[in-house]
Specification:
This is DUF937 domain-containing protein. The protein has 180 residues and is mainly α. The protein is 71% helix and 0% strand.
């Protein structure tokens, strides 16, 4: 009984699962799968969870993950979001009422840069609600941000467990579909 067979068995359970009633051991299964599958496969599953109508909106989930992240992860998350937006979209966010507070300061600082260099000290005063709004606006401007953030989160699978059982079950279900 090889490792691949075990992963197949775990994923098979999630092929036709009801995300509203995920198995009790969904977090444990997710850990196991995350350790033994390529990041691309994990990112694929996470993209499905972020886009599902059975989970909260993308922005809400990003805000939730931001609230659970450490300063390094937070700066990485914001770097991904702002990098996907690009300088012109950041400028339009500033003009569209996001110029105040800690987020406004960060947006002003990175507005002219080609790549969003976000440092841990830049994110220490940001709230999950500000990040939720930024992520929602980023998704409107660039729907590909969902895939980009999924790749980022695939590299930080322990953080992803904060999304809860339904999102994890959807991610594992997507991975199961892809294996077939």
């Amino acid at each position: 009984m090889g490792l691949g067979f075990d992963i197949g068995n775990i994923l098979q359970q999630y092929g036709n699962i009801n995300p509203n009633e995920p198995p009790r051991k969904v977090e444990q299964d997710f850990d196991e799968i995350a350790q033994h599958t390529p990041n691309e496969a994990l990112a694929d599953g996470l993209s499905a969870a972020f886009r599902s109508d059975q989970t909260p909106p993308f922005g809400a989930m990003v805000g939730q993950l931001f609230g659970q992240a450490d300063p390094q992860q937070r700066s990485g998350m914001l770097g991904q979001l702002l990098g996907a937006l690009g300088p012109s979209a950041i400028g339009s966010l500033l003009g569209g009422g996001m110029g105040g507070g800690a987020l406004g300061g960060l947006l002003n600082r990175v507005a002219g840069q080609q790549s969003a260099d976000v440092r841990p000290e830049d994110v220490e005063n940001l709230s999950p609600d500000e990040v939720q709004e930024l992520a929602a606006r980023a998704e409107q401007q660039n729907p590909g941000i969902v895939d980009q953030m999924s790749r980022f989160y695939a590299q930080n699978p322990t953080l992803v467990k904060a999304l809860g059982g339904a999102a994890l079950a959807i991610a594992l279900g997507q991975m199961s579909q892809r294996r077939r």
